């Protein structure tokens, strides 16, 4: 069966147990339609990049599934109809990665900016801008147009 990864964003005014209950609800929907949830993660409440339905934050959940396309379509349909779910995104993958998702890993484990102290910029080397040439004078001066 095809492998999928899903990210659900639920309303911010839900409790943690209600948000985790949504994971269980959609897991049973997949199981009823012939699929299974390989792994799921609750990422917690996070700030959204932009407001969605007047919400600035949302509960994020991540599911790795092994399900037929019909089960995934039914789960997405029910998620879009559910009042507590603001967004759902599904991606088909060739294989599931082992261990926790990138969101759950610590920054040092990912290798992101872990070796450099904060505020220390790397040397720019020979990438200096150099002379910009004559740019047409001062901003206060006006050119005459012919």
From TrEMBL:
One of its GO terms (cellular component) is cytosolic small ribosomal subunit. GO terms for molecular function: small ribosomal subunit rRNA binding; structural constituent of ribosome. Gene3D superfamilies: 3.30.70.60. Residues 92-146 are annotated as: Disordered. Pfam families: Ribosomal_S6 (PF01250). SUPFAM superfamilies: Ribosomal protein S6 (SSF54995). The keyword Iron-sulfur does not apply. Keywords: Ribonucleoprotein, Ribosomal protein, RNA-binding, rRNA-binding. InterPro entries: Ribosomal_bS6, Ribosomal_bS6_sf, Ribosomal_S6_plastid/chlpt, Transl_elong_EF1B/ribsomal_bS6. GO terms for biological process: translation. Residues 105-146 have a biased composition (Basic and acidic residues). Binds together with bS18 to 16S ribosomal RNA. Belongs to the bacterial ribosomal protein bS6 family. This is Small ribosomal subunit protein bS6. It comes from Paracoccus hibiscisoli. The lineage of its organism: Bacteria, Pseudomonadati, Pseudomonadota, Alphaproteobacteria, Rhodobacterales.
């Amino acid at each position: 069966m095809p492998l999928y990864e899903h990210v659900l964003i639920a309303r911010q005014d839900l409790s943690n147990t209600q948000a985790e209950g949504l994971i269980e609800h959609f897991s049973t929907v997949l199981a009823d339609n012939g699929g299974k949830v390989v792994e799921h993660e609750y990422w917690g409440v996070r700030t959204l990049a932009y407001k969605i339905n007047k919400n600035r934050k949302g509960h994020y959940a991540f599911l790795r599934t092994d399900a037929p396309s019909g089960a995934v379509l039914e789960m997405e349909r029910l998620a879009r109809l559910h009042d507590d779910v603001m967004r759902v995104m599904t991606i088909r993958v060739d294989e599931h990665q082992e261990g926790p998702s990138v969101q759950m890993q610590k920054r040092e484990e990912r290798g992101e900016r872990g070796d450099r102290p904060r505020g220390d910029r790397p040397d720019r080397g020979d990438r200096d801008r150099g002379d910009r040439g004559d740019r047409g004078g001062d901003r206060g001066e006006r050119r005459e147009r012919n």
